[in-house]
Amino acid sequence: xxxxxxxxxxDLGGELDDFDGANYDDDFDGLDESRLRGxxxxxxxxxxxxxxxxxxxxxxxxxxxxxxxxxxVNYVLRKSRxxx
Length: 84
Prior knowledge:
Strand content: under 5%
Order of helices and strands: HHHHH
Structural class: mainly alpha
């Protein structure tokens, strides 16, 4: 029965603050930002000016493939060819 009292007295707001994502930005540092920016430039150079893929999609793919430009280009090209 005493465990129920502990749960009732728990500050849920304080507990949930730990999981709101505020501390996850610490994982993204200056090196990641420069690699991401350089990767977007490389992918854009390969795709050419006629491709309409957003920078956000390219950045998400670069992050997913751990900055692998070749895999990102392949993914973006497959995604742009597939029907919606």
